[in-house]
Fold:
Amino acid sequence: MATEHTQTASEYVVHHLTHLNTSGERQQVVVDWGIINLDSMFWSIVLGALAVFLLWRAASKATAGVPGRFQCAVEMLVEMVADQAKGIVHSEESRRLVAPLALTVFVWIFFMNAMDLLPVDLLPVIWENIYSAAGGDPHHAYQRVVPTADLNITLGMAIAVLLLCLFYNVKIKGVQGWMHELFNAPFGSHPLLWPVNFAMQMVEFLAKTVSLGMRLFGNMYAGELIFILIAMLGGTATMLGFVGHVIAGSVWAIFHILIITLQAFIFMMLTLVYIGQAHDSH
Structure:
């Protein structure tokens, strides 16, 4: 009888950091526009739909009387985002789109980040059982459940923010006004400075986009990796390892609640700031 292979520590980590993707390859895919990470796409869409549903539910059930706890929580969140949007984006017309967008972004990213609080092996093991029941090798059943720990997802969201910034630059300033700004800011309108100004503008757009996506990805990837390392303590088959796993996991989970909330807030605020800057003339 063949004995079941026991994963080493390195194999365990690699397995949990490998995406279920369309390439059919074992290695982890960081960024490849020709490959789709199916697990990240699935969980991000599901959690996005959940965020929209809960916000819609709160709006449809809102009453003028004494609100319930859920309505109070959503109203506080809406007021917080609306106040931030009002202080940053000064166009009332733009805020009609930007404020709800910022609210949705905050809730959506919070939900995606919060997947990190689930037990590391819970959903992957369920997927392994489903994959095995379908006749597949469970050792090849990859599943990552934190979409924001995937650079493809966070950069995709950052690019969406960039496109919004470009849209509002053209809408508010007009094509001619924006072209004038691209070639005349920040150093002045002398023709010799036009190439330098344009290059600086492009660097600024690129830096904003990359830093926005990388910041969220880096924090959530590090958090996911720490949870995986803590989970390995529980597999040492010793009482000390189990106790260490429970204590370390609990402490890190409590601290991580702050991180997942803060990262969602930072992404939302930077989205508002970048769109607000698109309304300002230089």
Q: What stands out?
A: Residues 239-279 form the longest helix (41 residues). The helical segments are 9-16, 38-60, 69-88, 92-114, 122-133, 151-184, 194-233, 239-279. The chain has one domain: 41-120+147-279. The two ends are 75 Å apart (CA to CA).
